[in-house]
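**User:** Hello, beginner here. Are you able to go through the protein record under this note? It all follows right here:
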Amino acid sequence: MKQYRSTGEEDCFSEIYDRHWARMFRIAMRTLRQRCLAEDAVQSTFERALRGIDGFSDRNEGASLGNWLARICKNVCLDELRKQRTRQDFDPSLAHMRSQNASTGNDGLMVREALEVLNDLQDHYRICYLLKVEGYSYEEIGAMTGYPFDDVKTFIRTARRNLEKKFAGKGSW
């Protein structure tokens, strides 16, 4: 990162892109649930990162480049979700486009039901829960999303409880 900042070398940014693209795509895909929107969000993430590269500091509260990019990606995705809601509020005929089930016909009923529950969650609950499922710690999720530690724990607990209510007696979450 320091090398890119000082020289502006395109190869350095290419390396950053290659290293972090997959993670940003997973975040975007889980948030937006549509491949084309997720791809656009990842592109926007790296465009914003390139424009704001001077604002990144390795010394800011131990922030890592990956967490900084994840936060940008989350914000890009939330912006897109807000745009979708605004369009739907403006034009009710678009409401059927709000949520497309990402599961295939081969997925089990329980997976489809879990996706429906997750799709119905508010964005901050869903994002925090999915990041936790992906293996991030509460601290990392807080750093990526900008939510305080206690809020992250509450959001994840609420999402988990919603899933537990749906699947009471069918297994544990």
Q: What stands out?
A: The helical segments are 2-7, 10-32, 35-51, 65-90, 109-120, 123-133, 138-145, 149-166. The chain is about 70% helix and 0% strand.
